Known about the structure:
Structural class: alpha/beta
Helix content: 10-25%
Shape: globular
Number of strands: 64
Amino acid sequence: MKNKSQKNKGITLIALIITIIILLILAGVTMSLVIGDNGLINNSKNSKTKSEISQEKETIQLAINALKMNKEVDKIMATNIAEEINKEGKRVSAQGDYITFIKSKREYVITQDDGEIGINETQSTKVNDPTPGELDYDSNTNSYTIYSIEDLVEFANKVNSGENFENATIYLGCSLDFYSRYSYALESSLKPGGLMEQVTSGEGFPTLGDYWYRVRDLTDYSFKDTFPITFKGTFNGKNNTISNMYINREMRVVRSNLDENKLLYEYYNTCLSFMGLNEGTIENLKMNSSHISGSGNATAIAINNNGRIKNIEISSLDIDTKNYAAGCSMQNVSNTSTIDSVTVKKGSKIKSNSGIACIVNYNLGTLSNSNNYADITQENSITYVAGIVSYNYPTGTVIKCSNYGNIIGEKFSNAFLGGISNINDGTITQCSNVGNLVQKGIRSYTGGLASRGSGTIELSNNKGDIIAAGSYCPRVGGLVGQGEGVNLINSYNIGNVDIVVPSTYTKVGGMIGESNDEDKITNCYNKGKITAIGSGYCFAGGLAGTCTTTTPTITNSYYLDTSAEKLNGNSTPPITNSKSKTQEEMTSKNSADFLDGINGDGAFKIDEKNINEGYPILVWESEEKDEK
Length: 628
């Protein structure tokens, strides 16, 4: 009996322990279901948060819709969206492109992309900067790292006080946004009158090196420019983004006498850009939504580049200046300076009282692998607009660059439009213009690759349509508007070239509008339709509009027989193996005569993959397509 009793007691104890364990497991499961990451409470909170975010976005969208219906509103921005929302009581605040809901403290960025307005919730992760306003230094690598807006401004202040950082590297440790409170490390920076207010209003961000001077000799009127403040190190963005850089400054010039024969001109606030003069390297950087205005030269990256700029992406750029403007840099200043792999994205807006180039204004060095996707409209009476570079100097080379943006000149006066370059006296090679060019100036110079010039254009093409409405002496060409000794080699045009209003002294051609001096067209073809409306000296040709002398030469070049009535609009220059061809002759894979005729050095090949509607393509186009 005793043993049986003990056995029963043992079984009961084990059962009790098992029961307790099961209860604990069940309790754990229940707690997890209630308060775990995916529990009822958290799911309820997440649902509530999502609902609130949805309601806040809807509030912003309703305000945007109301502003769109208001004809008195020219541009929809965060500030007037906030005003519309706050008509029923203060619910939001606005800073730059950001709207913050006061109660929830959630922040939304208002984006503009090709006319479409976006509403994006920002990530509320504050920058991690242990020493705000002090550049973190690594003596082993002689490098500094920027972690906050405070650090970025301190970097600018150091350069402006004379430190050029030669042989040192500056890293951008994270993406920064001037208009977002999460990019500031110090709470004091967010208070009224603090750093955030300083760099997003008034004159804005302090350009690195916004000062230079000129000494002019009155005896011979020669002058020398000096930039005493320069950057000579490496600024490596590490593919991070600087957003909402704000600059708004008016140019100030101080003149004084050095002696009776020399004048000193000091220029302040003339560099509306991230940097004034770069003599080092700027690389691996994204610039988003820069807001730049004033009376100086304006650009996103550097006014003058005497070093290297590489791997730059520019989006939502907003420039409005009284001087010249460019997307990346005003000037590639020497034959050793390089700008490589720059992209200006669709939706960027560049306005200028003078001239516009979407990548660089003046190129004396090498500009390569760069593309523009932005549509540009120039509305001033004297129009200079180019998809890539405004003036390519004799020492300049533009290689593997493409323009995809539409270029429009609105006003009626002298006007220069070029898909790649305005004036080309250097070399353009392996370049392509895809965007349409529309020129409404009275006296227009327009070309798919260059408006005018004397340099070399080779292995390049124009695929965009060209429309000119100039009523007096338009010079319009599929590749070049006016040649001044230009050398066209192994290139083609498939875009239509149209003069759409009656004009006098009209000169329009598939390759060159007006051919002068010793222009050469060699191994080229035109497929684009040539149309000219005019009376009195109205000239149109499948290859050249006019040849003003007998010195231009046309060799091994052809045009589609339905594109124009004749090869040249007026006189007959020396022509060798050049004439019209039918579509069958130009597109058939068996058209060996045509391909051989333009293919003296193997630049063209048959369009086997229909890249070009069957018309011969350049060898590099096929290789580029294969890489993609």
